[in-house]
Amino acid sequence: MTRTYSNAKDEQLKLRKTGRIAIAGLAIVAALGMTACGDDKDSKPAAKTSTSAKASASAAANLPPVPTVAELNAALARALDPAVPASEKLDGVQGAEADPTLPDRLSQAAKGADVKIEVTDVTEFGDSVNAKAKFVVNGQENLVDVPFVADNGKWKIQKSWACAMLTNLGQTSTACS
Fold first, then answer.
1. pLDDT band at residue 93 using 50, 70 and 90 as cut-offs
2. Which CA distances in Å does 1 have to 6, 7, 9?
3. What mean pLDDT is reported for the chain?
4. Residue 52 class from Cβ within 10 Å (0-12 exposed, 13-18 middle, 19+ buried)?
5. Is 105:165 a contact under the CB 8 Å cutoff?
6. Sign of the CA dihedral 98, 99, 104, 110?
7. What 3-state class would DSSP assign to 147?
8. φ, ψ at 118 (rounded to 5°)
9. Residue pLDDT, tens place only, 108-144
10. If exposure means fewest CB atoms within 10 Å of the residue's CB, which of 42, 98, 124, 130 is most exposed?
């Protein structure tokens, strides 16, 4: 079968759109699902330390516990559930309060692209966490890194990452201004 230039270009555009939807879908899922990963338990700071060490221990005590792979997978499954109201997912993206429609727009994009996600590893970096995940969009699997930041006692998807995903989908958000 001979491909014409037009057919090849159409296929390339479909792949580009699928990739953008995949990235945006991951952002949706991860961001919205992180609401369930916060924990109100306080950590105990280390005993007798220097002033700078006390400040570090105090900051660490205010961080939520690092979520496990299982917790992130459960949270992401909840985030993809259309029965969960957007208002309950809003707290999963850093700065999303500025655009209450953000969770619904992202989840609809993920649903339309048949997104499936499985977190495989979680790494802590102080006040941030990186989740490695298998991300399947329209049957194509990709390995992705999703950054999260501690914000008001909860792990939330990093605002700049979520905004980049929206941009890749050709969408905008007032939360990204």
1. confident
2. 14, 12, 16
3. 73
4. exposed
5. no
6. negative
7. strand
8. -140, 115
9. 777 777 888 899 999 999 999 999 999 888 899 999 9
10. 42
Q: Give the torsion through C-alpha atoms of 11, 14, 16, 20, to 10 deg.
A: -170
Record the tokens describing residue 11, joined without a space.
Answer: 């296929």
Which amino acid type is present at position 104? D
Nearest by Cα to 49 from 39, 38, 60: 60
Task: Give the 3-state DSSP-derived string for 51-77, with helices as H, strands as E and coil as C.
Answer: HHHHHHHHHHHCCCCCCCHHHHHHHHH
DSSP 4: P
User: Is the four-CA dihedral 145, 97, 177, 81 of positive or negative sign?
Assistant: positive
DSSP 3: P
> By the 8 A CB rule, do 161 and 175 touch?
no
Side chain identity at residue 126, one-letter code: G
| Cα gap 147→106, rounded to integer Å | 17
List pLDDT tens digits, range 43-77. Answer: 444 444 444 444 444 455 689 999 999 987 887 77
| Residue with the two structure tokens 């979680």 | 122
